[in-house]
Amino acid sequence: MYNILGAEVTASNLVIAYAQHSAKNDVSVTTVQYPISEKEKKAVERWAQQLLDAAYAKALRGKRLKILVNPFGGKGTAASLYQRYAAPVFAAAKCQLDVQNTEYSGHAIEIAENLDIDAYDAVVCCSGDGLPYEVFNGLGKRPDARKALAQTAVALLPCGSGNGLTWNAFGTGSVSIAALAIVKGLRTPLDLVSISQKDSRMLSFLSQSFGIVAECDLGTENIRWMGAQRFTYGFLIRLMRQTIWPCDIAIKVEIGDKESIKEHYTAWCTRPQEPDADSKRLELAAESPGLPELKYGTVTDELPQGWQVISGETMGNFYAGNMAIMSKDTNMFPATLPDDGLMDVVTIDGTVSRATALTMMNEIPSGRFFDMPDLNVRKASAFRLIPHQKEGYISIDGERVPFEAFQAEVHQGLGTILTKSGRIYEAAGPR
Fold it and tell me: Are 258 and 430 in contact (CB under 8 A)?
């Protein structure tokens, strides 16, 4: 049923379109036709309607999609990947499409800021995670930011280096399978994180990193041609140097031990779903225009009381995640949830041995990474980080921001994405 895209009755046939697995990681649109007589027509039309009701269930049919194609992202193949693998799936599902190329960095911010949000059900980015980052921030710049972020779902066709949004929402790195997942996708609230630096404020949907991960992400732009492998290469190079990134860190910790984090994850995943929750969220968002106020102020304010101060003199890696999977086989934050109002903060001391660090990296795909004793994990609602050095890298959703103090604060369910389940990520949770 999930793979059925459309069913219609023509003059003499019932035509069913479906996504057939053409390879291990791809689907292609196929049709099957059954001849019908004139006297059967009404009964077949009723049957076709029942088939589509079952095939789409809670998913919106014929989604109106604003497609943004970044022709420069990843290896520069986004446009051809979209045309070959995604466009046929959307057409067979009778989606209404408006396709536009982005022409420069920040173009998607402008497009989202001026988007007619009533004309589209979702913005689909053909790119890596950079375009969704721009779309969320463009929607956040609007006078009706809260309404726009609640009403407009954001999805990603994986055409870049990391593609974290696709892996978390749909559990795939395949463009065609992601297109099918968008067609059948369910609206899902998503926590967004406000990042403040001096007088600036931006929104983050994926992660914030400082230390080895930020350097691997941003310090390897010269080898972007390697695709996702550049992150592993960058990690190994920096690991050999055993570099540390001293800083001051304070965290508003909500859950501070791994067993309690696991219990929270299980309880959240199994909670009963509230009927009409999405409609109620849209109503509330329409009543409160603009972004939510910052509960904890900005990085320039005094540190709020009750925050946990952590020694960062020998910091090796500070990594905060709003989603579980950062790239293929990298389930870095297995206990994250789309809309629990918390982010997972991972810290690793820079003085751990090279052997330990390599073991930790190798255990990420296995799921044993979470329980390793040298890994500190906290669920938090906010944090502040102040670098001691004058130069380095800070990565927000894979985008470089000024190397200076920043503060992060979670806004529960502020954004919207499409997912397969409608409630959790397609990632293995903590064991």
Answer: yes
